[in-house]
User: What shape does this take?
Amino acid sequence: MAKIRPDYENSWWPRFLRWLESGSSALDDALLDELSSTAEEHLVEGAANASTREAHDEERRLLSIRDEKLLYDRIHRWAHSKGSRIIRWLYRITAVAICVGIIILLLNTAANLPPFGSPDNPVNNEVSQRYIEQGMQETGAVNIVAGMILDYRAFDTLGESNVLFIAACAVIILMRLPSSPDSKPTTEQLEAEADDRMYEPKNDMILQHQANFLVPLILLFGIYVIMNGHISPGGGFSGGAIMGAGLILYLNAFGFRKTERFFTFTTFRIVSLCALSFYAVSKAYSFFTGANHLDSIITTGTPGMLFSAGLIPYLNIAVGLVVCCTMYAFYTLFRKGDM
Amino acid sequence: MALELWQSIPFACILLPLGSAAATSVMKPRIARWWTVTVLVVVTALSGIITWQFWQGAAHYTYMMGHFPAPWGNEIRAGQLEALTALFFALIMLLSLLGGLKKLDEHIDPNKVGLYYVVILLMTAALMAQVYTNDIFTAYVFLEIMTLAACALIAIRRRGRTLVAATRYMIMNLIGSGLFLLGIVILYDLTGHLLMEDIRTAVKEIAATGQYSQPLTVVVALIAIGLCIKSALFPFHTWVPDAYGFSTPTSSAVLSSLVSKGYIFLLIKIMYRVIGLDVIAATRIGDVLFVFALVGMVMGSISALRQTDVRRMTAFSSVAQIGYIYLGMGLGTDAGMMAAMFHLFSHAVCKSMLFLAAGGLADASGNSKQFRDLRGAGYRSPIAGVAFTIGALSMVGFPFLGGFVSKLNIALAALEVGGVRSLLVLLVLAVSTWLNTMYFLRTVITLYRKPLEGASYPVEKGRRGFCFNAALVLFALQNVMLGLWSQTVVNAIVEGLSTFG
Assistant: This one.
């Protein structure tokens, strides 16, 4: 009966049927299709035959340009309508209002916190007291901070060094260029090489002379900071960052040719593996003996000596290596997409 | 007090995947794959043993991580609820990985497949640490690992949309981490402790004297909102559809049923063991969560209704289901928390299965996730079709499945509260269930309809191999068992929560 009505197509039942058939509105459909098809996956399947791959790439590029233009037109039309301008304006006003509100709230909170530096603050309790009074005897580290992060709360630091490792993995996943199975450089890699030659400093005499003088000093200082982490301020994190900076300076002055002789992707993997495994295994031993109240073979030694404080100097070296490699890897991956 | 050997299981569950992650990075992909699967099997088995021990009536205990006792050193805690959650997480991780193994080689650059296993192992370690930790700062450290690992899981599939999704995910989640960290810092300033029990004692004193009540409210708000953003509660859910909809199926399954659940479990732990339900009730933050959850339950479902893509629809359905969990938490009662925990399990088990099955169905339909191409996919890929149907029925709340019991629990918890709230909950629950039914059954009907005229599908694409089928069958079994033996799980949750307080 209902089909007799002239506006049958727009009444709710056929609309429901249409939705059941296909889904939401046509515009959503079109937008989604365009967005997901412009970004086709391009794995290395066709890499073997460069000419067909290039032709294919060209075709895909033209297609995507057309699609983008269509999409742009549609969005452009919307962007210049009155409704969108009002919404944008409202959006900005609300964003600013929310930010100002949060700033006021947090400032007010800060004003209500316990006064800074007062001796009877809640933070000055038995926890920090024991760290300060017995830290040196119990951990053997003169630098209390090293004792805290690498002995008292070593589990947190184990997690922290793995944060660096997972960050490095994520950057490799994101930035490393795909390479072909038969060790020949792919087009992308060659392009990246060319870009690198074009935009980065090359054979800069001043830089090279300065680097000749500075890099050994920086590396030496980094090693000093790591090795003395348990005696003086410093430690794996800061020392590793210094050494990483030294390596980056060396790379900038002399280019990838020179650094590849001693630092490749394999070096990065092996060093990370050794450092993290040593950390995990030695700390697993220490956690297990500690929890089961077993005697540990690790002794604190004489505080103040280079090889004292149990595992702390070795853990500092491990953390330092991880930090150094991660910093250098970040730099090279962002610069060239490889090491 | 000497520990028995099984009491070292939480320690092993964290250290084993953490230690083997670095080793996996230098292995060949084939070896790395089986090594990862082996490690996950071991972690699952160990979690099974510890759950069994607690089920036999062992008492909860704390485990020193090092030679120094708790407020000075790190400590983890194991109890009934932690063990059960760890078992669920490990099992779902294992099955999700097995179910998506075939797709990994298709979606990921062969040079980077090895890294995927590294990320999976670190994610497992972080989840285990998150579940067992008794120290709020340890929770933050491993929360960072989870955030970064999740970004890597999304971005590893080389596709324009996944990169956008990963960027969005990272920005939103880092805001969440930032708020959470700020909350911890202020809390430490107020109490001087990082260990959960000690903070609880100090917070009780603060709440009694009323001296720092304003900062305490801000702390509760920062922690709750930070974790809400990370677990995609309604107004903060904008990163969900792309992140879940375009990544490889294993990543979608892990993100939707483990990562967001890890954050929610942490929030429940903080509510009970750090702040205390009474203090939370006094700050009224629970009410905010309650309102967000109510709106999210409806809005998530409405957005899901409008999708034409099965993966995006499932993603939006997650937003609605997260609303259910927060609804239970927002009620602020023990019954509400129990309902939230149960729904956390049933949704985790169900959503990962749905994502994997949707991947399989799309494969059988010429790699298209659009509904118009999915017609008849249930016949082309029978096991995926059945698994999707079971998952959809569970989400809708069909009796004998997990989703039914969790909806029942939420309704019962709401009735206990009484007043306007229980009326609101029942009303929204009814509307949301109705909407769920609309979009899920529509999908199931589509799966079993005749294909469009002239459509042809590549046959060989539909064969997914033994791992995929086995994973889906195990997932389906898990769903049914969760529904049939729900009382056992409910009892375990109640007992576990009672030792939390």
